[in-house]
Amino acid sequence: MAVCIAVIAKENYPLYIRSVPSQNELKFHYTVHTSLDVVEEKVSAVGKSIGDQRELYLGLLYPTEDYKVYGYVTNSKVKFVIVVDSSNTSLRDNEIRSMFRKLHNSFTDVMCNPFYNPGDPIQSKAFNGIVSGMMVQTG
Amino acid sequence: MAFLSELKQDTQNALKYYRAAYSLVHELRAHETNMLEIKTMAGFINYKICRLCFQHNTPLDAIAQFRKHIDLCKKKIGSAELAFEHSAWMSKQFQSFGELFDEAIKLGLTAIQTQNPGFYYQQAACYSQDRKQMAQQLCQAGTTYPSPDPLDTQSGGLDFYGQRPWRQGHQSIDPTDPEKEKMGILALQIKERDVPHSELIIALLSNAVAQFKKYKCPRMKSHLMVQMGEEYYHAKDYTKALKLLDYVMCDYRTERWWPLLTAILTTALRCAYLMASVKDYIIYCMELLGRASTLKEEQKSRIEKNLFKVLMNKVPEAEAECDPSSVSAARSLWSDRMALSGSNELTVEMQDYIPFIQCKARFQSPSFHVDQPIQLQVFLRADCPHPVSFTKLSVSLSNQEYNQWCVVEPSGPETRTLSPWKPESYSFSFVARTEDVGRKVEITGVEVMLGSDGGRCVFLSWRGAGGDAASTQEALQASRSSRRWGRGAEARQEPDWDGVTLQHSTMIISRVPKISVQLSHQPPALSNEMYRIGLTVQSQEDAVARDVRLTAGLKPGQEAGLGQNTHVTLDGSAVCDDSAPALLTEVPLGDLKPGEQLQTCVFVRCVSTGPRVFLFHVAYSIDTAVEGRRIVCRCHKDETVAVETVVPFDVSVKFVSTKFEPLEQVAVDVPFLLMTDVLSSSPWPLLLSSSQLQLLTVTSNTPQLQSQLQQVVLQTGEGASECFCLRVPPGASSNSTMATGQYILSWRRKCYGSDGPLIQTTVPLPHVVLESVPLYIYADLPSFGRVRESLPVRYHIENRTAQLQEVEIAVDPSDAFMFSGLKQVRLRVLPGTEQALLYNFYPLMAGYQTLPQLSLSLPHCPTASGTALRRFLPQRIFVKPQGRQADDASIAAA
């Protein structure tokens, strides 16, 4: 399903990033990093117009030849980015949405952990499991 | 046909025909051999279509068409041996589409962030990279160019674009001559090898960078710049590569994408190695060893070994993944560099990097007394896998003179070693100079020297109190976690690295005084008095306090007007005047031996009421020794006291007639009384020494005005009254108001004794309204009568006008008196003269009795009524009962 899933902190540094191990990891890092441009643009544009009634799901950020990048921003400006293979055309918008929702829920659980210091890289096993679940579905 | 319509400017039709042609091309039977031909044709037609779409201002159609085209053609690679051709073709497609797009934008089309020519340029570059890789793989074989050049066409041109030159004229699909085919492929491969791939890629990338810059994609831009840098590296243009990489490194560092930063650093390190650029090499090594790098331990340890080799002035090991040929070139470069003597010192500014040695410096406290040694701690921690040793650690401070105390230079051959991940702390202490009291001392920099003078030495210098590009964020994180975990972390033995906070400056403050200053006074202050504040300075010093100076007075920074209303003096014998200052400064009090005490008095005169704060500042100098150095310290002690100022007494003044009736107007040349009441509101007993009347126009009715308040002591709430008989001299104009003068009281606090100065308080007397009376009548009568004894009363009638006045006088009978005399009379009074009427009253009853009333009337002067005149006459008299002779005596005694 997803080939790369990343959680980016408010200050735009990665809290969590994981990609399909077989491929060039660095490339995914770059892809996620460059997608932040679009995320920021979208967030600032939306913030001006509607205020707090904000849609968290940002939709398709940008398509490259090989991948589709989807973005999601929580209310605390933490960003989730999911990279999907372009060839996977069966994937619908709704499914991406539910993936993000699942990711957000899991992230909230991580934040609720009293031993987690906000801003540190995420090392939670449960979160890892959820992410793996989303990536494994590729089948 | 389409081309024809295009020529005819019929663009809509042209588009239709082109579309038809495009689908026709794809219906052609594709085979390995004619693949290139088909693709070339499709490319041409696609180009045309897209261009027309842009012309028709339907960019979405153009993009969709292009996508379709790419999706269709992506899989048609053609012959495996010439795969690079396909990549080149793809790249060409993207590039031309990017150019079309760009052109359209120039013609007024607006692109958006996610859809701009930059992407196509980037993709084109991407395919060019593919092409290069494939070319590298495939083009190894050919060594000699085939002698009969198969690419040469005798006819001087091809019949169709995209046809293989050696296959011209053949229509069948099977290759006719396998030998010729092979030769042709080989020739193409060799040709491909000569293509300057890197330059192509860089050109495309820089195009893309320019586009992304336009569409506000800083991160996209950085990514492309990294790619450009890498391409330059492949093209062996290391300086340009380093420049680009250096530029983007900052972005990634501030964004804290460590894996990407590490990747870039690794490339940069290779560049620096191949260039044999010592400084860059060292910097990249240090950053790769630092905590931000995500390299594995063994890689780190290899880099660290290399770093130390460089520091020892030796040639480092080659970086992995480097071209063997360039490695050997680099090796010789390095050895040249090493052989070069001089310029082997190097300073690296740390705050722009994330180096492998972290530094935190702090003063032990935010302020130090001048007689304490200033303590400074520097913490160092190495993040690299092997211990690091440094040769020198020095701290520079804002005052250069202290720098000499803040250097650690290990004596002897052993060097200070930093174990991995273990913070080391170095303490310094020095004595502040007395001139720096009240100033701040700041850490301006910390320098650690690595290497030795013999080899190569690198100064790692941190600006301020240490910290690098990542430490502020880390400190924030640490503070977050420590807030959560409370102070439990501090109990640990090991100094917690994250818990160490920077303290980059300290105040030098003066020494704590060992004297006591006591104030004795009796608040509140009374306005205008010389308020005495006693000051006792007791020395608890071990040595003689020399040059004791007192600054006393109103504390600065209070209400603005207080300065003019407050006067301070040391001389309490006389009332000071307004020239005395509000703050006495630097009054010398001499020396003070240990244990002795010193007393002095300060007098304060507060003109206005209200609260004031007074400051007493005692300063002295004393010799002390700090760590064997003798210094002279100035110490001072401040005491403040708040004093309320109140009014000592209230004075009320009123005018009354001789009958003690309050007067609204005062008749000219008629005696009246002035009553003064002094009511003490001071909490302390007051001594009224004397009082005095200063009269202006009015004169005293009595020959000499004598104060009736002399040496009177008033307790709180007590009052003292005085009464003066006054008269307005004749001739004053009537119906005007007139100042009467002022009333002066001299007083002091009773407790101050006779040495305290007398304070003069002046109370202005109220103005009076004058009136003139035409006729003045007054009575001469004894102070009391006695029952059945004759009481002679003489009435005087004075004419004060210039005319003759006729007066009718009648005496009303009274029950209490019998009287003899004129009962009713009409008489004339000449101007300026007076007439007297004599009556003999004979009281019949004892006690206060109403006298028989004289009713007066002036027929010629209606303004003055009889009642107005009657107020001058006594109404009643006290009549004593008829008694014996003894009673008389007792009454007289009373």
From TrEMBL, chain A:
GO terms for biological process: endoplasmic reticulum to Golgi vesicle-mediated transport. InterPro entries: Longin-like_dom_sf, Sedlin, TRAPPC2L. Keywords: ER-Golgi transport, Transport. It comes from the Eukaryota. One of its GO terms (cellular component) is perinuclear region of cytoplasm. It is found in: Cytoplasm, Perinuclear region. CDD domains: TRAPPC2L (cd14854). The keyword Transport applies. Its main location: cytoplasm. Belongs to the TRAPP small subunits family. Sedlin subfamily. This is Trafficking protein particle complex subunit 2-like protein. It comes from Cyprinodon variegatus (Sheepshead minnow). The lineage of its organism: Eukaryota, Metazoa, Chordata, Craniata, Vertebrata.
